[in-house]
Amino acid sequence: VPTAAAGFFVRTGARDEQPELMGVSHFLEHMMFKGSATRDGEAVDRDFDTLGANHNAFTSNELTAFWAHMLPEHLEAGSEILADIMRPALRPDDFDTEKNVILEEIAMYEDYPFWALYEQTLEQYYGRDPLGHRVLGTKQTVGDLTREQMQAYFDQRYSADNTVIAFAGNLDFDRMVERINGWCGSWPTTRPGRASAAPDLPDSEAFAIESGRINRHYELMISPGPWVQDDRRYAASMLGQILGDADGSRLYWALVDTGLAEDAFAQYEGRDSIGEQFIYFSCPPESADEVERILLQEIDAFVDSIEEDDLERVRNKVATAATLHGERPAGRMRRLGQLWTYLGEYRPLDEELDRIKRVTIGELRDVADAFPWRPRVVGRLRPEVPAGET
């Protein structure tokens, strides 16, 4: 291939934060690009731009990643910038400025009905467990966060033994290992660990939020699923697609194609030692009861109706997506980094495709028996009823 990519993957995210520090992982991701002891934020941007590198970062509940995609002759220079910003200066002025940016981002996401419902449903599902933490944090936690607290969190979590570096594309791997050792060989080890993912999940329960700012009904259901280290994740992902893919799924034909709902999907999300299954729909408020009734019927009936054609269609779709993602070094690098962070192993694309193609209807049914979309927490976000109306 004519390009190369590098990425740093840190095994830390919202689930690793103390409640009063909620949002620090995401905030810290922003602060990395404000520079190190040798570069300020302007220099970071300028140096990446000089290389023509496509660079970015993301934070999730359990992973923070920083990556760059560039021409092979610039791989060493781009990787050096990444290694450098992984030791951030955390300058007080930058900290104060970026805090305002984060607070604006939190306010922006509050305007998205799905996001607001997702965060509150996840909190209800996990209760006090950090697995329910908001990645962005709250206005309160981010507003109260100090630079000293961020530094202490960085010192504990951004260690050599909690970081994976992945490369893909046109590169000399041994040469890059040598260079990384020179840039990062002095990083400390801290054995940060992670709390066991064994929270007391609730029995089926429901809650409702009323808002005067919306005119649609939004509903989200969360139930247990396989964890990311569980080989059943392949079957769980395919079950979700057969039930609720964006088109051609059971929920699409029953709810969206009929005009009852504007949106309906099902999705599996594997995490470290725990997993979730999501089902979501939005519709006019007057249709909500009917849509929910049909949706529950589909959940109860669709597994027995799965045929080989359904599975073959999804197998091909998943295999195609994995192949297309792996064709570009940036996609392959991110896949490798995440797999190694979660599983501690390298898996060639051919092996991944072979496992996808070997999923059987029997596996789908076994996963549905083990994780039958129950118990489930149901969150509803609906228009506020004006005073005097029912």
Summed up, what is this model?
This protein has 390 residues and is α+β, with helices and mostly antiparallel strands.
Protein model, in words:
- The chain is α+β, with helices and mostly antiparallel strands.
- It is 47% helix and 18% strand.
- It is built from 15 helices and 9 strands.
- The protein has helices at 24-32, 41-51, 75-85, 92-109, 113-126, 139-144, 147-157, 173-184, 233-244, 250-256, 288-305, 308-327, 329-343, 349-357, 361-370; strands spanning 4-10, 54-59, 64-70, 163-169, 205-211, 217-225, 263-271, 274-283, 377-383.
- The strands form 2 sheets. A 5-stranded mixed sheet has the order 5-9-6-8-7, with helices on both faces. The protein has a 4-stranded antiparallel sheet with strand order 2-3-1-4, with helices on both faces.
- Helix 12 (308-327) crosses helix 13 (329-343).
- The longest helix has 20 residues, at 308-327.
- It is globular, with a radius of gyration of 22 Å.
- The protein starts with a strand and ends in a 7-residue tail after the last strand.
- The mean pLDDT is 95.
**DSSP helical segment count:** 15
**How many strands in all?**
9
Structural class: alpha+beta
Poorly predicted regions: none
Strand order of the largest sheet: 5-9-6-8-7
Mean pLDDT: 95
For the sheet with most strands, the description reads:
5 strands, mixed
> What is the H-and-E element order?
EHHEEHHHHHEHEEHHEEHHHHHE
- The residue fraction in helices comes out at 40-55%
Please give the alpha-carbon distance between the first and last residues: 63 Å
Question: What's the SSE blueprint?
Answer:
Elements: E1 4-10, H1 24-32, H2 41-51, E2 54-59, E3 64-70, H3 75-85, H4 92-109, H5 113-126, H6 139-144, H7 147-157, E4 163-169, H8 173-184, E5 205-211, E6 217-225, H9 233-244, H10 250-256, E7 263-271, E8 274-283, H11 288-305, H12 308-327, H13 329-343, H14 349-357, H15 361-370, E9 377-383
Parallel strand pairs: 5-9
Antiparallel strand pairs: 1-3, 1-4, 2-3, 6-8, 6-9, 7-8
